[in-house]
Write a structure and sequence with these properties.
By secondary structure, the chain is of the alpha/beta class. It is built from eight helices and seven strands, in the order βαβααβαβααββαβα. Helices cover 42% and strands 17% of the residues.
């Protein structure tokens, strides 16, 4: 029986969009008779024993699927650390397929595909993984995993993500390489005036409120101060 290891690389852990996506993919794998397991990178890096456990699970898997958010056009630090651990182990990964599935709060998936997807691809080449394709999800924040919703409970908003995950699993089962795909979860109507201006204003206020809550001076102009 084939084995799939699903890595949740979100610092939010189980309360994340990555978790909702990962849980749904696990269901899809098991429906195809593929043994699957989800591990939270955040907790695996706490102790040396857990790191060894994660490495062992990677060694025994046929498919390694990484779910993670885009943070400041880069991977979260816990994902970078995991990539470093895998590289340092110098294990034989030539018979294992690696697929990164990355989401970002911004609606444009090219924020991912033009930034971190090439990094993940180079990582796979460097450590010896078989590249299985990638999925870039724009507007992933709307999946609202932090509110405890499963992907299939969200409704039409998650339709594109559900279809893409199904396609990925079918590609793996059929041993056909999945391409590098971009999807958008935000309905196209939100890109049109005046909704685009309204959404920009709402998001700006939200970011400022969050920054102020953490003690930041959002309107500071330090280089104008004497």
């Amino acid at each position: 029986m084939s084995k799939a290891l699903i890595l949740n690389g979100s610092p939010r852990g189980k309360k994340s969009s990555s978790a909702s996506l990962a849980e749904y993919m696990k269901i899809l794998f098991e429906a195809e008779g593929i043994e699957s397991e989800i591990i939270l990178i955040l907790t695996q890096l706490n102790k040396g024993e857990r790191i060894k456990e994660m490495v062992q699970k990677i060694k025994s898997a046929d498919f390694v699927v990484l779910f993670a958010p885009l943070y400041d056009d880069c991977q979260p630090s816990i994902v970078i650390k995991t990539m470093e651990i895998i590289a340092e182990e110098k294990m034989n990964l030539s018979n294992k397929t690696f697929i990164p599935i990355i989401n970002c709060g911004l609606p444009e998936p090219e924020q991912i595909s033009e930034g971190v997807t090439p990094i993940y691809n180079q990582f796979a080449i460097t450590v010896g993984f078989k590249w299985g394709g990638s999925l870039a999800i724009g507007g992933g924040e709307g999946i609202q995993g932090r509110f405890g919703k499963q992907l299939d409970e969200i409704g039409a908003f998650a339709k594109n993500a559900i279809e893409a995950l199904n396609d990925i699993v079918q590609s793996l089962v059929s041993e056909i390489q999945y391409p590098n795909v971009e999807i958008i979860l935000v309905p196209k109507i939100f890109y049109k005036w005046p909704l685009v201006n309204l959404m920009t204003s709402i998001n700006t206020k939200s970011w400022k409120k969050m920054a102020e809550k953490k003690g930041e001076k959002v309107d500071a102009q330090p280089y104008l101060e004497e």
